[in-house]
Amino acid sequence: MNGIIYARVSTRRQEQETSLERQVADLKRFATAEGCTIVDVITEQHSGFDLNRDGLYRLLDGIKSYQVEAVFIQDDTRLGRGEAKLAVLHQLHRLGCTILTQQQGGELELEAGESTVLHIMARVEELQRKWMNQKISWGMKRAMKEKGFNPARNLKNHGQGGREKKEVPIEQIVSLKERKLTFEEIAATLQGFGYDVSRATVHRRYRERMNERLTEEEVSDT
């Protein structure tokens, strides 16, 4: 099992630096006792109420990069304070990480109120995912209904082994817009076929294409 040690203190005073060193030494022993391979040790001196922390970003990136299964901390306040702590806990749970604390001698046990909040946050995200999937479905059905438009036939990159598609099919965007789909619906439809596009990207590219058409028309009139 791969793990990361995360140690934090709130200030840069000399005694706090000593506390950091002690945290790391204790957590290394704790991780060894748990049979975990430590792939990174992260220390930082920053307020726990602030989410804009370099060490925190490094922790989240490291979990993905090293396929980390466990995060070792002294206690839950090392991850953050107040709402910031809940936000960090939520992200770690989403990444599938087990949080092990030296204070509790094992997996972190949350207070009832914290567990409730995290459960609510997870359900909200679940609703958002289902809502987006439904919007994709609506967009595809609407596109196929309007004048028989078939995205599977018209999107030139469809069916290429599921590869991520960076290019934007501008003519298809124009065609969908002419069928009265919103930019959000167009983005959802294209996402359903593997295009990595946002509503803003669709809107921008559509406007660029319309400007190009205007320029072409002006040239042809001269």
Automatic annotation (TrEMBL):
Keywords: DNA integration, DNA recombination, DNA-binding
SMART domains in UniProt: Resolvase
Gene Ontology terms for molecular function: DNA binding; DNA strand exchange activity
SUPFAM superfamilies: Resolvase-like (SSF53041)
Span of domain Resolvase/invertase-type recombinase catalytic: 2-147
Highest taxon of the lineage: Bacteria
One Pfam entry name: Resolvase
CDD domains in UniProt: Ser_Recombinase
Catalytic residues, chain numbering: S10
UniProt-listed Gene3D superfamilies: Resolvase, N-terminal catalytic domain (3.40.50.1390)
GO biological process entries: DNA integration
PROSITE patterns: RECOMBINASES_1, RECOMBINASES_3
Family: Belongs to the site-specific recombinase resolvase family.
Protein name as it appears in the record: Site-specific DNA recombinase
